């Protein structure tokens, strides 16, 4: 029998995709969930049998994927952010690029002594959600090149770093002034919810004689999301820009009580959304979807 509280996740950066460093340095991740799993695709035999029974199936492909879900906090997800952006932190600035980062990730069921190891894990996508009320959450979609499991702890021979202890961020306490085209809309058209996603559009290269991926190849970086804005004349002026495809810039900081911060800069986004409606007792808000274009988005961190 096993308890969910005894599931631990360890991450080690790889120098060569699919090869675990020896010895490895492991980070113990702070997660709310880890759905990494092998996925088996099969094809059932079409042969006719005298017994009328099916002839079973063959494996056509294997994939290794899932989401690492957490609550945003300083220093906890910096390596995963780097991999999701396909960039490299440079003087605490990270932007969309073409640098591949891969990991070996161990999903440990500690109370029963079973360890699942995913190798060559790429971050195919990420999601950041800032709700109207609640915790700022993030998730990272991993796609791996290989998998193995057993009863021997893969982290035992390496160095294991403990979990970070920074405070989780919340929508009421951590979100600073959100700027639209360089100006705050506070008092005119406040933003009440915001999300951002990056999809690296990973493609799987299949190779004959190999059930798992031969390679995982990033193609275009699709950055999109949504924002909810209080309806006002200022909001209407922004909403109208969808009719001309004029880009707007959005800038938003996340800061914890200790002064650690991550500031996200989306220089050019196109928005889409319907005119809002509301009942007699409703607050009128406009929901806008956006897509980033041309200029790479970036995030700047300050760690104290």
TrEMBL record:
| Region feature Disordered, mapped onto this chain | 1-23
> Which domain of life does the UniProt lineage start with?
Bacteria
This protein is called: Phage tail tube protein
């Amino acid at each position: 029998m096993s308890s969910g509280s005894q599931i631990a996740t360890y991450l080690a950066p790889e120098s060569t995709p699919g090869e675990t460093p020896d010895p490895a340095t492991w980070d113990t991740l702070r997660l709310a969930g880890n759905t990494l799993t092998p996925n088996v695709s099969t094809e059932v035999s079409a042969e006719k049998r005298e017994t009328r029974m099916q002839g079973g199936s063959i494996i056509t492909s294997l994939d290794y994927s899932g989401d690492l879900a957490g609550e945003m906090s300083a220093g906890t997800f910096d390596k995963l952010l780097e991999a999701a952006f396909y960039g490299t932190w440079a003087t605490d600035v990270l932007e969309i690029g073409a640098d591949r980062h891969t990991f070996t990730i161990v999903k440990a069921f500690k109370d029963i002594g079973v360890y699942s190891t995913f190798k060559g894990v790429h971050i195919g996508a990420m999601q950041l959600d800032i709700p109207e009320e609640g915790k700022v959450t993030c998730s990272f979609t991993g796609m791996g090149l290989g998998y193995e499991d057993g009863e021997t702890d893969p982290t035992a021979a390496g160095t294991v770093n403990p979990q970070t202890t920074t405070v989780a961020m919340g929508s009421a306490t951590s979100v600073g002034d959100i700027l639209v085209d360089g100006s705050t809309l506070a008092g005119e058209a406040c933003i009440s919810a915001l999300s951002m996603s990056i999809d690296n559009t990973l493609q799987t290269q299949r190779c004959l004689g190999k059930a798992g991926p031969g390679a995982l190849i990033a193609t275009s970086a699709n950055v999109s999301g949504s924002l909810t804005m209080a309806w006002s004349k200022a909001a209407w002026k922004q909403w109208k820009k969808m009719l001309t495809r004029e880009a707007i810039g959005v800038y938003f900081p996340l800061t914890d009580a200790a002064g650690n911060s991550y500031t996200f800069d989306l220089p050019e986004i196109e928005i889409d959304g319907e005119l809002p409606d509301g009942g007699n007792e409703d607050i009128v808000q406009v929901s806008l979807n956006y897509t980033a274009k041309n200029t790479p988005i970036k995030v700047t961190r300050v760690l104290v």
